[in-house]
Write the structure tokens for this entry.
Amino acid sequence: MSARIEPITGRYIHLEIEGRPYRIYFEEAGAGIPLLCLHTAGAHSSQYRHLMCDEAVTDRFRVVAFDLPWHGKSNPPEGWQDEEYKLTSAFYVAAVEAFSEAMDLDRPVVMGCSMGGRVVVRLALEKGAALRGVIGLEGSDHPSPWYDNSWLESPEFLRGDFCAALVSGLVAPQSPDEFRWETLWHYYQGGPEVFKGDMHFYRTDSDYAHESGTIDTGTCPVYLMTGEYDYSCTPEDTIETAKRIPGAKAIIMKEMGHFPMSENPTAFREQLLPVLDRIAGGA
Amino acid sequence: MFECLTEAVTARPHLRHIGRYMRSSFLLEVGETLYHVTVENGAVAAVETGPFKMRSWDFAIRAPKEVWEFFWSDAPPPGYQDLFAMTRYRHASLEGNTAPLLHNLRYVKELLALPRTLRQEAGS
């Protein structure tokens, strides 16, 4: 057989989050230090597919990424049809914790992007001792809205093509067209209202700026990596966050936008590998 | 600068398809030059140059000429690569009824980028 088969495996796990059962889809590749990856709002774990095929990462890290409930191949909970999806800070943390426990991930590194890059701040605050470190991609410790809140009530937020068009400018002009459109396709695929529900977390329920200064980066190192073209989490947002967290390291990535791992995987790995080296070295 | 829209969209059936539900008129301000753009079912029916007296429009995008020039460059600097990047950093302003814009966001964004696209195509 000559077809190329990637080393990624995908499976389903059943677990409880806040006392409710969920069927969660996850993918993984590699072996070693657990590296748990969190996708952006309205998207899913495919954003990490390039990382999972990178032997420079998978030779030392067990890269695991799951689709949050309602996203990708993870189902919404039974009864979803009578509910409005709204991601809360507490649920997000509980979901990461439940998945991590169910998968027996021992002191994982948690790397999240965008809303995932925000939640890692809370994880470092509350669960730092159980983590080997956090990497916030396009992350900060407080919301920094770039459009009017009332837009969230527009019916367009029900549509994937609108979500894709909304975030399209967050991809850096230098990112290869193939991966630009692949990244945007993840947004085309989102279920109705899922992106809007994620925005509840991202815009109104994730302000950690008043407590992020208490993170113990000696126990849980914090790396914040942001693209210079990101106007959702701006480089200034990231630098200010890093200043509030003693010992946190901010890295501003040239010619990169809001989706580094999926929009320009080759350029991103150059930035990420030294960070993973440092984390692995300190393990 | 935006005079090219009618012909460029005509030559792009896929773009016309993306905007097929759009019926709207909007204002584009390039420094002191005003363009009034009328879109009918994805075709750019008219691009008129101001000044206008009591002309109605749904929404307006206003920016100095040098901002548009950054936007249309091959690799726009950070903050100039997208309509919302430009509004976030206050390089451009967005006014009026944003509904037709939201309904047809990819279409309008690609219209705005056409001067760059055409220049790049001519150079290639």
